[in-house]
Design a protein that fits this description.
Helices cover about 30% and strands about 5% of the residues. The chain has about 110 residues and is mainly alpha-helical. It has a domain of about 70 residues. Strand 1 and strand 2 form a beta hairpin. The protein is elongated, with a radius of gyration of 24 Å. The two termini are about 45 Å apart.
Length: about 110
């Protein structure tokens, strides 16, 4: 989605804002009036690019052009988790619960 939308500017609607780490869409005047009538306060957007690990719009566009758009899964709060590799030895159930006869009896 970030690749399909333009970068946000003062005059753009339906855009990607990498400063606030948000997608922005046009808001009809009627919605603003309805929110004002309901007394809803619109929160001020806080810069979140560094805390949420958001890619820059320029980078997303480059990945899209080069076919590397699959890199986006490394952003927006992504954290690596180590996963076992097929070439690593997998411990047996007895090794995992070594010294715990009750766990071995229950799980193995």
């Amino acid at each position: 989605m970030a690749a399909s939308l333009p970068a946000c500017s003062k005059t753009s609607y339906d855009c990607y804002n990498d400063k606030f780490c948000r997608f922005c869409f046009s808001h009809a005047d009627e919605y603003w009036a309805l929110e004002a009538a309901m007394g809803i306060k619109i929160p001020k957007c806080m810069e979140a690019a560094s805390t949420l690990n958001c890619p820059k719009k320029h980078d997303v566009d480059l990945w899209h052009q080069s076919g590397l758009l699959s890199k986006v899964h490394l952003f927006w709060g992504h954290n690596d988790l180590p996963l076992p590799h097929e070439d690593l030895p997998v411990p047996t159930c007895q090794q995992l619960y070594a010294g715990d006869a009750a766990a071995i009896a229950k799980h193995c």
